[in-house]
């Protein structure tokens, strides 16, 4: 078969087009074509589905008047995105935050945490760290004791959080649970507490680079914290919580008692600790 | 040993009837594509010239790669500017991608870098977390310790490429992500320069 001059020109043109096609995407869209011009308050197809499933037929106030989500636009690592939930309502008998749901729209398992709260917290603020797998909204839905729902959301630009390998040098300490009072006790006032569980919180999406098999999911499923025998919060969790799951929360120290954390993981491992409060 | 002789025409890919052979056209196709790709890449590894980078080469090889920030910090304080510190590796494809992005969009981006002194730390992928050191005045710290000393969360492992936005102390102007993949569009690079959290 003869190759004509016209064909040669077409081949050359094809080379140029191929080159342009290879080099152009980085300049016009984020790697992988991830959307970059999304507002924090935007909806998403995933959120619309979740909303219908988790809160069917209920109206959700989004004016950020009762709850605020504080998350950086970009975090150091997708596997550890710091998240702060700030409640605008004092946690008192009568009207209080009864439940907090934390979602990551685009994660393989988007419901990161559901926390059942009591007025004993004094202030329903929480801090934790999340895995975020790709550019996504993070949402908090705060349900008050009168049934009202309030939400706030932030769009974050990180990726790879669910397949990033956790630090595995503490596997011999798996389940070790720590309770700390980071800023000292404030008698009869909301006092910050940190609870942390040493755990890889494996997602099931990390590949073992030697065996090329996926490491099975193994994560902290629940953390229950009480003070002087009265529950503060029960958290149902998922692998969207970062390795070594940690929460900062509040309680109101009174006449003294024991802070107690009970932890269960997805392989029915049971762990816990206590901290005596004078 | 048998030798293969080729006529000058065959070497040129021209057959006896004056037509160019398919293999010759394929070779030209490959050469053309290669040349086009080379033209699209920055002339050499590193931040493109329009950004007026101050290039810092490492010292202490092969045991370590130590980058001395002392002089650029002094200059930042003197000129009341911030530092845009880029750590790239000569053999890192993601670094070339970011540099190519900067080069391609230089006309639009360079004016927005005016409050920054761009610093280009030239490393290689063989320089891993333990071998990377940052020196400021008399103190040289390994990567992890340096990160902790300035309050940067990226303490796990060194990632190529990396960017720090620092003031003259040096303290981070904001927490930066590992890698540059989340700011390789003009709009997102501007978010970074504007310190949008």
Low-confidence stretches of chain B: 1-16, 34-43
* Percent of residues in helices of chain A: 10-25%
Order of helices and strands of chain A: HHHEEEEEEEEEEEEEE
Oligomeric assembly = heterodimer
Helix-and-strand structural type of chain B: alpha/beta
Largest sheet of chain A: 8 strands, antiparallel
**Estimated share of beta-strand residues of chain B:** 15-25%
Cα-atom radius of gyration of chain B: 23 Å
Biggest sheet features of chain B: 4 strands, mixed
Most extensive interface between two protein chains, with residue counts? A-B, 33 and 36 residues
Counting helices, strands and paired strands, the structural category of chain A is: mainly beta
> Low-confidence parts of chain A lasting 5 or more residues at pLDDT below 50?
1-32
Distance between the termini of chain A: 93 Å
**Global outline of chain A:** globular
Mean pLDDT of chain A: 87
Distance between the termini of chain B: 70 Å
Q: Could you explain the architecture of this structure?
A:
- The complex is a heterodimer of chains A (278) and B (197).
- Chain A has 278 residues and is mostly beta strands.
- Chain A is built from three helices and 14 strands.
- In chain A, the strands form three sheets. An eight-stranded antiparallel β-sheet of chain A has the order 7-6-3-4-11-10-13-14, with no helix packed on it. Chain A has a three-stranded antiparallel β-sheet with strand order 1-2-5, with no helix packed on it. Chain A has a three-stranded antiparallel β-sheet with strand order 8-9-12, with no helix packed on it.
- The N and C termini of chain A lie far apart (93 Å).
- Chain B has seven helices and seven strands.
- In chain B, strands 1-4-3-7 form a four-stranded mixed β-sheet, covered by helices on one side. In chain B, strands 2-5-6 form a three-stranded mixed β-sheet.
- In chain B, strand 5 (132-136) and strand 6 form a beta hairpin.
- The A-B interface holds A 1-3, 7-8, 11-12, 14-16, 18-19, 22-23, 26-31, 36-37, 72-77, 80, 157-159, 167 and B 19-20, 22, 25, 28-29, 32-33, 36-37, 40, 97, 100-101, 104-105, 152-154, 156, 174-178, 181-188, 191, 196-197.
